[in-house]
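Anyone? Bumping this.
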Amino acid sequence: MHSGGNASSLPLVGGAPEPTINQLSKPGRRASRFPKLDVPVTEINNSAIRNDKPSLPEVSEHDLVMHYSRLAHRNFAVDLGFYPLGSCTMKYNPRFADYVAGLNTFANSHPSTPSAFTQGNLEVLHELEKFLIEITGMDNATFQPPAGASGELTGLLIIKKYLEQNNLTNKTDIIVPDSAHGTNPASAKMAGFNVVEVSTDVRGMVNIDDLKDLVNENTAGLMLTNPNTGGLFEENIMEISNIIHKNGGLVYYDGANLNAIVGVCRPGDMGFDIVHSNLHKTFATPHGGGGPGSGPVAVKAFLKEYLPGPIVEKSEKSYEWYMPKLSIGRMHGYHGNFLVALRALVYMKLLGKEGLDTLGSYAVLNARYLSSVISKIIPLAYNEPCMHEFVATVKDLKKSHKIKAYDVGKALLDKGFHSPTIYFPLIIEEALMFEPTETQTVDTLDDLAETLKGIIDELQGEDVSLEEYPKNLPVGRPNELIPAKHLTVNWGDFELLELTE
Amino acid sequence: MFVPHSEIDLKKMFEELSISTLDDLFTHIPETLKLNDGLNVPPSLSELESISDFENLESKNTQNLICFAGGGHYDIYLPQTVKSLTMRPEFMTSYTPYQAEISQGILQVLFEYQSLICDLTDMELANASLYDGATSVAEAISVAINKTKRNNVVISNGFNPNTKEVVNTLVDRNKFSINYVDSVDYLFPEDYVFSQEDAAFVVSYPHYEGSAQDLTSIVHNAKAAGVITICYADPSMLGILKSPGSMGFDIVVAEGQSMGSPLSFGGPTVGWFATRKELARLVPGRIIGESRDSNNTKTYVMTLRAREQDIRREKASSNICTNQTLNAVGSTIHLSWLGPEGLYEIGYQAIQKASYMKQLLTDNNFNVLNHNTSLREFLVETKKPAEEVILEMGSKGFLAGIKYDVNQILVAVTEKRTKGQIDNYVTSLREVNDA
């Protein structure tokens, strides 16, 4: 199969391990040069000045470039192959955004520069806010949160402050589905709430009867993704939000799965009061090997004055910073991840109405198609139409042939694909969660399915070692237990440390 | 745009799904929720059309201001080598390295990042990055509270005010009290008495106003009272200042922008977090460790995972998931490019140039409030309100600094500033102030 998304030709050659930059260091070598000091030298007397030089590697610039380029060669990426990683929306990141984010004053403004000198930057945030509130169906937004989890915490602190202002401090429970991302309960705990789990019904949706039982006068709110982490649209979403609202709670939308519904429907029309978006997922900013992200929070008008700030307001002549009157405070030292927001604006402007109206549709089309072909190989967890992602399971194959989701994921790596998300959501045994995104071709989807079929057939064969894969990569399966027991977390650390809980 | 589906592709996919339009995908969504007319947004633009839009938008920012502002973010020279290596697509467009076999590149860079930070700060364990300096301070305080089970936080008042606001937001003040201790002559009082109720002592190094002191004895006193000591360090000064570890600190956090990230209007940058092994279980965020694979080959993996939210859920050490990895990659490559001599040079030149500037300001009848104890950053008094001075200096081509008080400006000097720029700044400041 010749598809664009198969990275099996990737030069991730095996062979010797790459030394660390420290191992390449030799005394007296250096890459850096600076202009000569052009002011008269004065003696500096301060008790904080050190008498020696810091400990850093000494390498030539060519050695430095070769080292980090070789390390880059040992890394899979969206630019190399298909990443069907459920819940992560690993779509194509437009190159043009790199150019815009590199423009002089976008890249190089000091964060304390007064608004009079940064009207362009403030306009970027204002323009992006307009797109974002239209797409989510909300009224106002803040770009303070630097990531999705920070957005969640922001939303929860808004709920908390709103309840305090309304003398509802008895409301201390946040309801979270048992299928939720781990950040949901962790954020709720950080905000000082009790976490109450609502179960999932056999169809894969929020168990409404359970929800009704759990909701009471102490309910502060509900956190939900829609579609949920099983990739299913919560069809009873209006009933769910009504149940929470009737009890005086607020409803929070975890934007992790927003990609499925852009242009199709909006959280703001489903009764959600607060929405965070992951610009690094839905709006195509690069994930950077784990970050930076950006997790702007949008709210209905009645919550605007609670937003963390400052936020941008437009007057007749200019853009100005505005601190909301009941603001929860600051979630970031300055203005959040501004350059990530800028990249998202680039993406939205390029897509425009034509692209944004159909964004969710194409994301769902790809997932629905892939689920259809994959369901002929391994069963799906739910017999419902999926949205932008779906969950398959190898629990039967585990019983019959001891094949684990982990084995399938590792074999896929060896065949030039990133693994799907495995063992999530936690409520599904031996889960494999696929999210193709809208930017992959049908050929690549077919190629993945065909490869998966080959793997499943092979692993069911006689005398197959399930632990064999991957075998063509720089390293094999890691022993993930060693470092936790003997903590080697820096190159100077040879001391073995036993850690106990 | 960026959607690859041709008519032939659509036909094939529709047939597989027995549908005839994209709308048929959504028959299970309640009709009342559907957007019938789509979104109210502007039409799609080609890249060619939008270039001028974005260049025009960028030009609305005042161009080419010479930067004398600091406060944690510094205009330090970022070499092309560092920028281009950091932006390699294999780093930039990869996901969090959960699949170690195909992520050895990012994992090793992060292992090197952790190691470099440990070496530089004299700590034993660093995490793989937090959001920024301000949120790192809040995370460090949370570690101290969890470790000591005490309820009071002592913070030096000589701190970036935005960082204080972040701390005030993230530390639950219904449960914990925050005691901001005033500086004496812009230094933390040596004789401050810590109490057995104090969970954390947090100090900026140098202080926000630019003054610096050896903190060894204060840290010693705090630790004697069982307090976890937290240093908020300026990474670009660590080539010339005593390391936080050598002064005895338990936790070092930093705003890492100056090492590897452009100013970026404040974000994305990176929060550094390093500590001692005793606090390993309480550390927020990801940690990379060295392990072995099935063939006993050196292999880097994410480690101590049982602290994290995806496994521990509401019992996690923090809710952080997405971090600032790419900026950490930038820090790694920048520190390696600088080496010991380069990092020293950045600090040395900044201090020498600031020293020259302070004298020049004094010679021109300006009052530098912390002349003797400050290093690369200092406070200048103005006759006119600071806000006005900064705006008028802007029209002369300078970002004059950060407003500190009604008539005080915080001025920062980096190795990038030249004698000519400093001379012109002082001349301009005199004109503005006297006008």
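Late reply, but here is one note on the structure posted above: The longest helix of chain B spans residues 325-363.
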